[in-house]
Write a structure and sequence with these properties.
The complex is a heterodimer. Chain A is globular, with a radius of gyration of 14 Å. Chain A has no helices and 11 strands. Helices cover 0% and strands 54% of the residues of chain A. In chain A, the strands form 2 sheets. In chain A, strands 2, 4, 5, 6, 9, 10 and 11 form a 7-stranded mixed β-sheet that branches. A 4-stranded antiparallel β-sheet of chain A has the order 1-3-8-7, with no helix packed on it. In chain A, β7 and β8 form a beta hairpin. Chain B is an all-beta fold. Helix content of chain B is 0%, strand content 44%. In chain B, strands 1, 3, 4, 7, 8 and 9 form a 6-stranded mixed β-sheet that branches. Chain B has a 3-stranded antiparallel β-sheet with strand order 2-6-5, with no helix packed on it. Classes of the chains: A mainly beta, B mainly beta.
């Protein structure tokens, strides 16, 4: 079974750093892009960025470029999302996702399946 | 920036057909995907490449595309289908975009 298992909920203060994780299993971790999606309380889904664990090629949504860092350690099949200085506005649920692709079609088709269970990040003084 | 527009809410009675739309200028050239999110749970893929259904998703879920609008159709709606539904696609540069979400209420 393909699974993405995320690290547990975090409560942090503004200005603190944080790194959350997403461990993949049941498939070849280095062969699929892994992405991150934010969901603020009571709001919709926002795509943050994506990484290819095979070579660490990383792409960011313009909205999140410079705000977070996405990384991966292929030796332990784990992707990461990190902040160097959290803000209250970073309070949200964060999901990791495996990207599936069909590159035969033009433009290439990209979708997300499965999703991790989510990591709730709360930033409050 | 590119946007996908969904109605905030749709309501149907059990057994009826629910249709949830998603509009965007790039949809004639980009595929659309649909995710179901029940309260307190992670989203689940229910339709990919406009109209393909993943294994394990009931046949009552279907997708279609026409011009700048894609539609998720749920035939014979059941109480368990009550959830938020999000469309996803990409803009002309390939950047992923989600719609704002539609809350499906089963009356």
């Amino acid at each position: 079974e393909v699974q993405l298992v995320q690290s547990g909920a975090e409560v942090k203060k503004p200005g603190e750093s944080l790194k959350i994780s997403c461990k993949g299993s049941g498939y070849s971790f280095t062969s699929y892009w892994i992405g991150w999606v934010r969901q603020m309380p009571g709001k919709g889904l926002e795509w943050m960025g994506i990484i290819y664990p095979g070579d660490s090629d990383t792409r960011y949504s313009p909205s999140f470029q410079g705000q977070v860092t996405i990384s991966a350690d292929k030796s332990i099949s784990t992707a990461y999302l990190q902040w160097s200085s959290l803000k209250a506005s970073d309070t949200a649920m964060y999901y990791c996702v495996r990207q599936l692709r069909d590159i035969v079609v033009v433009p290439a088709a990209n979708w997300f399946d499965p999703w991790g269970q989510g990591t709730l990040v709360t930033v409050s003084s | 920036s590119y946007e996908l527009t969904q109605p905030p809410s749709v309501s149907v009675s059990p057994g009826q057909t629910a249709r949830i739309t998603c509009s965007g200028d790039a949809l004639p050239k980009q595929y659309a995907y649909w995710y179901q999110q029940k309260p307190g749970q992670a989203p689940v893929l229910v339709i990919y490449k406009d109209s393909e259904r993943p294994s394990g998703i009931p046949e009552r879920f279907s997708g279609s595309s026409s011009g700048t609008t894609v539609t998720l159709t749920i035939s014979g709606v059941q109480a368990e289908d009550e959830a938020d539904y999000y469309c996803q696609s990409a803009d002309s540069s390939g950047t992923v975009v989600f719609g704002g979400g539609t809350k499906l209420t089963v009356l």
